[in-house]
Amino acid sequence: MYDTIQEAEKILQVAEIEENDQKANLLIKSVICIIEYNLIKDSCNFFYFYLIGYAWYFLREDTPERIEKVKVNLKSSIELNNNYVWSKLYLGHLYFDITNYQGALKEFKNIDFYALKQNWRILKVKELILCCEIYLNDKLLGRLNDDLIELIKLYKNIDEIDRPVPLELKECIDKMNFKINDETYQQLVLWTNSE
After folding, report:
1. Does 25 reside within a domain?
2. Would you say 37 and 10 are in contact if contact means Cβ atoms under 8 Å apart?
3. How many domains does the chain have?
């Protein structure tokens, strides 16, 4: 089992940086086949479900089948091991991508940030939580502004190497005409343009 997982993870790493979409998809589909074959032998292994969902998530095809496969497999992984944060993280990302902000918010808020062990990823999840709340108009305006100010402070205080690009936050603010002060907005523009 361990060798299969290592092999699958290596192939996925290559696929993620592959520039040619067709080649990347072939690599990802090969991982899906490898893991699905092993899943037949061990259908209670949460990590197999996670890897299949993760692989489908990175498949460079925007199809209903892809969305369904990501959901089904990551949900199965969570059912088998509710403490595995990566399943919740990628399910939250999928929900965010398909504008199911309620679902994304639920998954993101159930993540143990410290289990992620990556400052940039923790900051990105906090950004996506705030975006969901803005899209859902989930909090009072004053509270959302306080959360935004706090998030911007975190962005300013993190090492540049660990700072994710806040593209989703800027897009959300623009789309929702969310009012923020000019200095904060200009800082967001600067960070998103430095990508």
Report:
1. yes
2. no
3. 1
